[in-house]
Amino acid sequence: MSSPVAIKLIHALYTVPVRPRGAVYRDYCVAVADDRVVDILPLADALQKWPDAEMTDLPEHVLLPGLINAHTHSPMTLLRGFADDTELHVWLKQHIWPAEREFVGPEFVADGTRLAVAEMIRAGTTCFNDMYFFPDATIEVCVETGIRASIGITIIEIESAWASDVDDYIDKGLQLADKWQSEPLISFTLSPHAPYTVSDETLVRVAQLSKERGFPVHIHLLETEWEVKQSYQQHDLHPLNRLESSGLLDENLQAVHMAQLSSDDIDRLAALGVNVIHCPQSNLKLASGICPLTALLGAGVNVALGTDGAAANNDLDLLAEAQTAALLAKGISGDAKSVDAFQALEMMTINGAHALGLEQVTGSIEIGKQADFCALDLSAPETQPLYNVVSQVIYAASRRQFTDVWVAGKRLLYGGELTTIDLDDVICSAGKWQTRLAGLEAGMMATARKSDL
């Protein structure tokens, strides 16, 4: 006869489970058995029910569902600050892509992902979607560090060190999905890079694979005005029409950026159940455009938040992303009630889970779901006095106030210290890559100056 599973209790001054919507509990406990939530109840009831349970006491904190970064390129932390203040296509073609051709390989991806995961855990993130080359290296780091990840099977009509052509990208990605199908922390998306880097034939193939394998589809879409013009020039179609004719415009689509939308487009997305991943800071920094968040939410579109890669942001701070999204929506709409604090919290928790197909797993603190939590210390002067917990989290708190993080019941951040990552080693590794990349950039700049003479 098996022994009963040990119960662990987490008590916080406030618990905001996100579901039920709007609930804020004071002096509650979340009871965890192994990797799952088994109860949410008042402190006194929890102590009576499990008097001998191990207790984590957070008397000045709010306990939240773990944050979900629905779009990033984690290895690109090693390109943070590389070629800033540059237009998107110049940034990509003259700086980022040449650097990637020179350096991207398993070691680059593993080191960059480990740096990204360290940053994300310290910022309350427990799950992220990733789109990059050598996803096998990314998966290894995620399993090693204990973070949850939705891994993109990147598909692009450009040869890279990872794959030679579309067939190679797909074959290698599907092999990884088969290899890791029993790993509970890892899920997969099909990730065609963008309409301008993927052919119609490939888009149709992706749609067929999505239906056959049950994978969602994750794609950069309507990021810039140039993308729309290019689509009309090459295909005589709007990008949304291309995706719809390929069978991709549906509830399985995770459309990233969406900064070039008309009101008719928004109605169409709502009717088809398309998910939008909003990356406000990246779009602002690259001057790509502004996603019409107020209109999307008003139409009933599910909108999640992503940071994009650290090369375009320049951080992986999802809390700051939520603050930016809410404030930008108010300013653009002229309506102070637009995107309230709770909606912003939903965008970086349950909405992200829904978009990634993980709503039954994570995104809220509910009985039966995985024990993915983050705890934020409200005692700092920046979050005092306290009138409204959720408003304080969104409008006043910073990522430096996260002290504890759990994924699947495992504590990855304990009192501000990482438990599965050697931070000194990670920073040392980043410094080595900085030296190599700085040398490349200096060489490219010298070459550019000679060509101008």
What's the quick description here?
With 453 residues, the protein is of the alpha/beta class.
List the helices and strands and how they pair.
Blueprint: E1 7-15, E2 25-33, E3 36-42, H1 43-49, E4 54-65, E5 67-72, H2 88-103, H3 106-122, E6 125-130, H4 135-145, E7 148-155, H5 166-179, E8 186-192, H6 200-213, E9 217-221, H7 225-235, H8 239-245, E10 253-257, H9 263-272, E11 275-278, H10 280-285, H11 293-298, E12 303-305, H12 318-333, H13 341-347, H14 350-355, E13 373-377, H15 389-395, E14 402-407, E15 410-414, E16 417-418, H16 423-452
Parallel strand pairs: 1-4, 5-6, 6-7, 7-8, 9-10, 10-11, 11-12
Antiparallel strand pairs: 1-2, 2-3, 4-13, 13-14, 14-15, 15-16
Radius of gyration: 22 Å
- The secondary-structure class comes to alpha/beta
Helical content stands at: 40-55%
CATH class of the largest domain equals Alpha Beta
Shape: globular
SS strand fraction: 15-25%
Largest sheet: 8 strands, mixed
CATH architectural label of the largest domain: Alpha-Beta Barrel
Domain count, please report it.
2
Number of distinct helices: 16
Number of strands: 16
Give the CATH H-level superfamily of the largest domain: Metal-dependent hydrolases
| CATH fold-level topology of the largest domain | TIM Barrel
Distance between the termini: 82 Å
Mean pLDDT: 96
Q: List the uncertain runs.
A: none
Biggest sheet: strands side by side, in what order? 3-2-1-4-13-14-15-16
Query: What quaternary form is this?
Result: single chain
